[in-house]
Amino acid sequence: MKLITRNTDYALRAICFVVNQEGRVVTAGELVKKLRIPRPFLRKILQSLNREGILVSTKGSGGGFYLAKPAKEIDLLELIGIFQGHLTLNECLFKKLACPNVKTCKLKKRIDKIETMVLRELAKINVASLLSEERLNVKKKDHQDRSG
Amino acid sequence: MKLITRNTDYALRAICFVVNQEGRVVTAGELVKKLRIPRPFLRKILQSLNREGILVSTKGSGGGFYLAKPAKEIDLLELIGIFQGHLTLNECLFKKLACPNVKTCKLKKRIDKIETMVLRELAKINVASLLSEERLNVKKKDHQDRSG
DNA sequence: ACAAATGATACTATTATGGTATCATTTACA
DNA sequence: TGTAAATGATACCATAATAGTATCATTTGT
């Protein structure tokens, strides 16, 4: 069982790359090269990210993608929502019938608690926080390397 | 996304029923009637539970199933392990290649934490604890306490 | 006009899930 | 000792989700 599927994962990588370009427009072609994601699949993912208001796209020659909102405001829970639908660990298997077993509804409550925890944690994981540490490292290196 | 699939759920219901029979041998046919689970599917599930040492089966006329170990020692994590394989929320999507994106490995660490939490909570949910509340009610009703 | 980009969308392949179906084996007991 | 009642093993099938492909339409800078 995977919590994160491929399209969510690819989306996250793509977003991270775009963030690092600091506002520059990035094309799908570039992302394909850098991230080694199959082109048509990535294109579909980028289109979703555009529809969902995470990336802005510009069409035509010289077009591409850039961030639609601050990296801090893009979290894993939202991405999972887009590519995997609402995350419900809990989904009762006897929706329509009356649940034939009272015991399992006790189960439902306990799984609900776990679900709540997971959602809360996923919401905490935002793109900015994933990048922050590395950015610090980069700046340190920069500082040593280029003195001009 | 579901944390618990049907066979795990059915297995749990079946086990709960068997537990309530207090050591009596229960047949697949009985379980089919009471739990309204498709017969061949339930049979397969029961066979798994037998193989995995959760139920003991006796063959032949008058045969059936009973618990192989105390209800307290059967937990959801084990059942999920049997029917859904080891639960890994985390599964890195770039196992063989070097991970092209260091950022995502920070992600891995954060998801690992969530996974650890989830596994710990699932291990806490055992059959005895799911039934305990109801058992208390039963005891109040028939007023004869033969616990020891 | 044309090349370079994205948008929309329909199709396909693979895998996991949720089952069925069948035959073999064991056992109680009439 | 034969048969019905039970489980064991296993191969098969249907549906849905995931992971992709393919194609054509649209926009835009030069």
What is the element layout, followed by pairings?
The structure is a homodimer of 148-residue chains.
Chain A: H1 6-20, H2 28-35, H3 39-51, E1 55-58, E2 64-67, H4 76-84, H5 102-124, H6 127-145
Antiparallel strand pairs in A: 1-2
Helix pairs in contact in A: 1-3, 1-4, 2-3
Chain A binds a DNA duplex (30 and 30 nucleotides) through residues 5-7, 27-29, 38-41, 43-44, 46-47, 50-51, 57-65, 84.
Structure description:
Two copies of one chain form a homodimer. Chain A has a two-stranded antiparallel sheet. Chain A has six helices and two strands. Helices cover 59% and strands 5% of the residues of chain A. Chain A has helices at residues 6-20, 28-35, 39-51, 76-84, 102-124, 127-145, and strands spanning 55-58, 64-67. In chain A, strand 1 and strand 2 (64-67) form a beta hairpin. Chain A has one domain (6-145): Orthogonal Bundle (Arc Repressor Mutant, subunit A). Chain A is mainly alpha-helical. Chain A binds a DNA duplex (30 and 30 nucleotides) through helix 3.
